[in-house]
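To close the chapter, one final illustration. This time we ask the reader to focus less on the individual chains and more on the assembly as a whole: which components sit near each other, and how the overall shape emerges from the parts.
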Amino acid sequence: MSLREEIEKANQMAVERMMEASALWVDVVEAGRKLAVFSQPTILHAGPPVEWESASGPLRGALIGATLLEGWADDPQSAERKLAKGEIRLLPTHEVGVVAPMAGAVSPSMPLVVIRDPKYGNEAYSNLNEGIGKVLRYGAYDETVLKRLKWMGSELSSAFKAAVDQAVKERGGMDVKLILTQALNMGDEGHNRHVAGTSLFLNELVRYMIMSDLPKEVTLRVVDFVKGNNFTFLNFAMAAGKVMTLAAHNIKYSTVITVMSRNGTEAGIWVSGLGKTWFTAQAKIPQGVLFPGFRPEDANPDIGDSAITETSGFGGFAMAAAPSIVSWVGGSVQFAVENTERMYQITLAKHRYFKIPYLSFQGTPTGLDLRKVVKTGIEPTINTGIAHKQPGVGQIGAGVVSMSIEMFKRALRHYAQEYGI
Amino acid sequence: MPRNMAYKASSLGEDLLWELMRRGSLAMEVAERTKDNVYAVFHGHLVPVAQEPLLTPFSVSLSSQGPVEVSFEGNFMILTAHAQPLSIGRPGESPGEIKGWPELVKLASVLGSLLRGDLDLHVSRLALKLLEEGWPDPEAVIEGAQRYVGAGAGSTPSFDDFLAGYITGWGRSLQARLDLSNTTYLSRAILSEVLADRDYLVEVARVRECAKGRGDLLHHSLRVASMGGSSGIFMLLGVTSALLQRVGEKDVLLKLWRSIGGTHRSP
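The assembled structure is written out below.
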């Protein structure tokens, strides 16, 4: 078989598996109980590997917050000292199957949602979403942030666990992919807009919570929390995206991108046929709509694992499905449509299940091809939140950013060394 | 590209620039328009005009700002210099050894895998047959190429793109003559220029020189590959083929073409 045919066959398989993977929510577990990496003091973070010295403000803030939450330090100064000395290990989330938005700090006591793909036998995990504004994932760590995280690790996660156990009992779990598919038909793009997704999720959740006999006041608090945070579904969608891309990963010869992620300093990608090797470049600063009182120079370079949504064929790639997104990230409806159209040029397929009503129910651009990115020079577009560059401040806006072509060029060089004749 | 509008240019091909700086302004007839490009003619030379034009000694690279005013009036393009723009220069040919061919082959095989469609794959088989039959004599390849000129799709047919890359790859060491009456206007113009000036396709010539250690081979290979739909890929395969012939790597050359879909086997 020629190299061209080998690549074509591998990519077909990768895209097919990505589209056909299931994504069932089956559990909520404490991170420390699920992942062996937490056998020593460890905090996971979004994006490619990074050391404390080069970590950005929001990532530093989140790491300090996670250290305080775990009780590994009594105050931010001693947390910083421990982190700087390397007494707490930092590991990229993706390397252990976790995805988490923005800073992506995950420490052992935090709850993880478990998304399972029975079809290809993979599992992926994400933390729970705290809401917008002053939150850990944007680098805030004051008392209100830590108090909310503690509640999320106890009452909220217990309620979610009870509900998902019920869902597993009744139907083998909650079908996150189905919710995502419906949400894309209801004006979400699955990354920065989850108005439909969170509502659909809540519709299901409520029933399972009632069936699991939770106290009424707990149910009410959980429902109010989810209802008040349209981004609740983001983390579920991300873990679903991760489990889909896991199905497409590690296929010999495949040039499909299976990870795109940022740590606030660098952005990085994985290529299916190149295993877990990171190819990185400087993370760009998102352009978009800032909350009142903030200026463009306050913005940190892009951060978070949430680009897994684009990697798996929704998010920014499906912007044409979400005209309302432009009020949140800036631009015009025309821009949203053009962006999706542009992404078709660097992808291999139109998604079989994720459809865009406005484009006559065409499938979303799916299966980002390393070769097409470098051939066309078109950088993948990501919808994203904007973090303040100083630790402790939080989210200051939302916008659009692209992944630098440089990391794709590096990956191509490596790919050519590995597979070129 | 809209007609009757004014643009700016930031860089010009070195030959056109020299004329413009000497005369202050130049007017030339527009010979062809495509969606993103305009092709004018100056003293018999093709002048590619676009935001990212084919880089030649006569190209005009448009940008939002720049010291050269570019206006279109009817079927004419007028260049007016207010200051000196950047120059798109020929890389020149060096006598160095072609040590970079293994890396170039790897890149070309991966980028070549993007070729799709029956016509492009057919052209790749023609190229394989031609190179195999003509080995080791480049003149024999050119002679054989005569019957395929114009084969393939697009305003510059794929076979012609391959040939333009191949001739550039051989540099001045190749004496070549071709009857170009069977191809498109644009392709005829480009191939005529390449036959007269081995550095006319500046980026392709840079790949040839990078293979001798003069610059970033990956960067320039990607620049070439990014041209047009499949034009750049065929040019890259062309220059790579010439370099492999120059270093006597017949097996690698045949393997390269077979890796992208060529299936010709000698009897």
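Chain A touches chain B through 22 residues (CB under 8 Å). Residues 40 and 89 of chain A are 8 Å apart (CA to CA). With these observations in hand, you are ready for the problems at the end of the chapter.
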